[in-house]
Design brief:
about 325 residues; alpha/beta; 13 helices; about 20% strand; globular
C-alpha cells in the first residue's frame, strides 16, 4: 500500500550551465520547457560537447516522488522506458532512491526520454525534452491494483503532451475515485497550459482533489494578469490549490479560502525542480496531518533550500530528512 502513487515521464536529466548567448544562438525560449525531436536533441548535445554536466534520473513527477520517498513515505511510480542505456540508468537510479517502479524496460527500437536542462547565471532553468518512448505511456502500463491501495495519486501536467498519457491519467483518476484515492495534478509548465490545454482539462475531468502550479501557470490558465482571479478559477476545479510565487512564497487555497504562506530567503543558483520538491514536501506535510497553509510554509522552506544548490533534487535521503529538522515553522 502506497502513500502516493505517481505517474509521469521517465526522463534522464542532463544539466549544464550556459551563457544567455547560447539560448539566443540556438533560438531556445528561456525559462520554459520545449519538446524537441531526437535530431534536435542530438544537435544540442553536440553543440555542448565537452561542457561539464550532471546526469540523474528525472522527470517532474519522479522528482516529487523521490522527495516523498526520502521523507519516509511509501511510493510507487508508473512510467515507460526503452531497453537502452538511458532507460536502465533511470530504473537503477530510481531504485537506489527506494521508489517502487511500476514498469520494465521495453524491448523496442525506440529510445528512453531525456531532458537537457540549461542553467543561466540568474539561476533560471530552460528545458529541452525528447520524450522518446515515454510519450507512449498508456493505460496498459499501469498497475491499477497498486494504485487502488494508495492514499494519493499524483500526476504531472507534462503528460498532457501525449493523448495516450493524458488518457492514462484520466483512467487513474477515475479508478482512484472508486477506491477513495485522492488525485493531485500539477500544471507543470506554461507551455503545457497554452498548447495542450484541452488534454490538461481532460486529465482533470470534472475536478480533482489538489492542484499544484506556479504563478505564471495559474495566470496562463485563467488568461488573466491577476492572481486573485486565477485562484478563483482554479478553486472551481479543486477544493485544494497551491500556487507558488517564487521567493514570495505561495498561496494555499482550501474550500475557497486563500491564505498566503511567506517565502524563505535563499541565494538561488538553480531553480530546477523547485516546483517538484514543493509538491512532494507539501504532500508529505499533508500526509502527516498538517493544515494546508502549514504544509505550504514547509514546502516553501524546502524549495528555498533546493534552489540554493545545483540540481533538481537533494543529494540523498538524509538531506531531505534534514529539512524537517531545520524547519522551524
Amino acid at each position: 500500500m502506497y502513500d502516493v502513487f505517481g505517474l509521469g515521464n521517465a526522463i534522464v536529466d542532463t544539466e549544464l550551465r550556459v551563457d544567455e548567448s547560447f539560448l539566443s544562438d540556438q533560438d531556445i525560449a528561456k525559462g520554459h520547457m520545449t519538446l524537441v525531436d531526437t535530431p534536435r536533441m542530438h544537435d544540442l548535445l553536440e553543440a555542448l560537447e565537452g561542457q561539464p554536466r550532471v546526469r540523474s534520473s528525472g522527470g517532474s513527477a519522479a522528482n516529487t516522488i523521490v522527495a516523498l520517498q526520502s521523507l519516509g513515505y511509501s511510493t510507487g511510480y508508473g512510467c515507460k522506458v526503452a531497453n537502452d542505456e538511458t532507460g536502465r540508468f533511470f530504473l537503477e537510479h530510481m531504485a537506489e532512491c527506494g521508489v517502487d517502479i511500476n514498469t520494465s524496460a521495453a524491448t523496442t527500437d525506440n529510445h528512453s526520454g531525456q531532458c537537457l536542462i540549461l542553467i543561466t547565471s540568474d539561476a533560471e532553468r530552460t528545458m529541452n525534452t525528447d520524450l522518446g518512448i515515454s510519450a507512449a505511456l498508456s493505460q496498459s502500463d499501469i498497475n491499477f491494483e497498486r494504485l487502488a491501495g494508495a492514499k494519493y495519486f499524483y500526476a504531472e501536467g507534462y503528460l498532457s503532451a501525449s493523448p495516450d498519457s493524458a488518457a492514462a491519467v484520466r483512467a487513474c483518476r477515475d479508478a482512484g475515485r472508486e477506491t477513495g484515492v485522492a488525485t493531485a495534478i500539477s500544471l507543470s509548465d506554461p507551455s503545457m497550459v497554452e498548447i495542450f490545454r484541452d488534454q490538461l482539462t481532460d486529465m482533470m475531468g470534472n475536478g480533482v482533489d489538489l492542484i499544484f502550479c506556479n504563478e505564471e501557470e495559474a495566470l496562463t490558465w485563467a488568461k488573466t494578469d491577476r492572481v486573485d482571479l486565477a485562484v478563483a478559477e482554479l478553486k472551481d476545479i479543486s477544493p485544494e490549490v497551491y500556487v507558488t510565487l517564487g521567493a514570495r512564497g505561495s498561496i494555499a487555497v482550501t474550500n475557497g479560502n486563500a491564505q498566503e504562506a511567506g517565502g524563505y530567503e535563499a541565494k538561488a543558483v538553480d531553480t530546477t525542480g523547485a516546483g517538484d520538491i514543493y509538491a512532494g514536501t507539501c504532500l508529505a506535510a499533508r500526509l502527516s496531518g498538517a493544515e494546508p497553509v502549514a504544509a505550504a510554509r514547509f514546502a516553501n522552506f524546502c524549495a528555498a533550500e533546493l534552489v540554493s544548490h545545483y540540481g533538481a533534487r537533494l543529494t540523498n535521503a538524509d538531506d531531505y530528512l534534514a529539512l524537517k529538522e531545520k524547519f522551524t515553522g
